[in-house]
Amino acid sequence: MRSATIMIISFFCAMLMGSCANSQTKSASVDHKGNKYYSRTDTNKLNVSNAEWKKILPGDVYEISRLKGTEYAFSGKYYKTDTKGTYYCVACGNTLFRSTDKFASTCGWPSFFESIRPNAVTYTPDDTHGMQRTEVTCTRCGGHLGHLFDDGPPPTYKRFCMNSLVLEFEPDGK
User: Fold this and answer.
1) What is the pTM of this model?
2) Which one of 13, 92, 141, 161 is the catalytic residue?
3) Confidence of residue 26 (pLDDT cuts 50, 70, 90)
4) Residue 123 — φ and ψ, nearest 5°?
5) DSSP, residue by residue, 71-89
6) Whole-number pLDDT of residue 29
């Protein structure tokens, strides 16, 4: 019951709040040319202004990553993906999640039960929209990824509810 309530609240917040009305696309690929901050090996924390990110990131990605928006439920390209591989921050290349930690949560967004390493993401209390949630951001660039809930599967019982638009996926073997 609690999981269903959270799913309904998440869905209606995304639909009714309009916090990212222009981000219902299926996530266009991001061209990393010209993004000097993108690296899949560098884990050093970045200090980049939102004005600079706005020049680099596509509008829908900027809206979610820098302005804490959200894509519409069930619209993201990674929502139902079950291909084996790794998920990265689309803005900076930080390694975030493995597909082996992804599960079908039916909440409308890609869900994971843990991040790839403890310091890959950062947690911040978020009391916006009349809810008590935990915001999840990329530790390297500070970009908003989604939220963390306590209704996931074992072994962590956590649900990292992430936006597809701010994730980049690379299948195993590439």
Assistant:
1) 0.83
2) 161
3) very low
4) -115, 135
5) PPTT-STTSS----EEEEE
6) 63
